[in-house]
Design a protein that fits this description.
291 residues, 13 strands, C8orf32 fold, 21% helix, alpha+beta, 7 helices, globular, seven-stranded antiparallel β-sheet, Immunoglobulin-like
Length: 291
Amino acid sequence: MKYQLTHTTTYDYESPVFYGRQIVRKRPRDLEFQRVHNFHLHIQPTPSWSQQDLDYFGNARDVVEILQSHERFEVACRSTVHVGPRPINQQLPLFLARWEDVAERLTRDPAFIEEREMQYDSPFVRRHPLLRAFAERVFTPGRPILEAVLALNALIHNEFTYDPSYSEISTPLGQVLRDKRGVCQDFSHVAIGALRSIGLAARYVSGYLETIPPKGQKRLVGADASHAWASVFLPDHGWVAFDPTNNLLPGERHIVAAWGRDFSDVSPLRGVVHGGGAHHVQVSVDVAPLR
């Protein structure tokens, strides 16, 4: 599938901002199954300084500095991305290792030193006995790891309610687990926390998902939203993505933007400003298929 992707974020401030420095992570990743054909970034006001580089996890980022006074800050990105089938999904039926053996191998084998970083606590995801107990509902003794991961995916999808009004980025993960409500970001954090709490390596993936309108209705431009899912590391195979919000394995409709330990590593826009006071944020995302 080929997509035209547009992602716009606008900040309106109640008083002038005199200085701003922002990190923008909206540039999709080039991967084995995903190719970025073009990317255009438009920022208003025009930055006085900018730099493109890669962060610690290899995500593309644009760092910009705004020196002129402004009451509105807008970041608009447009890219054309081709997404194909994920080769690893074809290999998964061959992976039958018990989840306990995978956890032990990750801990002991020095070949997985980088992946081991995703076994530990991060700013928004801390290992906890309640998360371990939640995982153990499906990670029963001796169960094949892939079968257990798919069961965890379904468990979160079936027991949690999607509620955009429930949570904020600061909502504790324990509260989300207790109330079983939230959005894709929360569900991904729960999945990652559960996997890490039983010794597995899991990471957070941010990106976009093409939404299909109800039958007979037109697509609403700007109605799509940024999306989040998780992935688990399987030795000898690599990272396997899963989407607990939709209870499926990501495919050609999922566009990868960035990955990290949790949302704090992949926020699409993060920075500091001097001035501004209270502000209003508006975000618009459109994922349009090009056929």
